[in-house]
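Before relying on records like the one below, remember that each one covers exactly one chain. Contacts with other chains, cofactors or solvent are not represented anywhere in the record.
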Amino acid sequence: MDFGAKAGAYVDAFMKNIHWERVGARFRREVRQPGDVPSPIPTANDHSVTPEDLRSRIERHEDMVVLDVCLAEDLAKRSDMLPGALIRAPERIADWAGELPKNKPVVVYCVYGFQVSGDAVAELRHRGLDAHTLSGGIAAWHAIGAPTVPLTLTEGR
């Protein structure tokens, strides 16, 4: 609607919003040579929590850990986070995963709840943690009007 009959301008604007480096990385991960054994990729439904469920858990003060694992480039564009969340760099998961309690559920989110948080959850589960991804990420959290707090970077970032 914003572009009217200027379809080309719409396509140009759309293409500028694609993060081509991430697209390329995903493509390279999916393209395999003959004989390669594909690694299982967790789906969001395997170990996910809905925003509504997480909101209820937070309101009931359930004992859990909430982790924000957004990439630095995405974090730079954000101004808020979930209440009580810890910010951790997903690329340094080996450095901080051992600090997480194994007797509490861990809910992990990123911007949209797909690749970054999904990969982090898979690794945390591999390490024996009860990890779950926030379905839809912080974008879904915003969509239900759930509360946020100002973004504060911590020592884990």
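The first strand starts at residue 48 and ends at 49.
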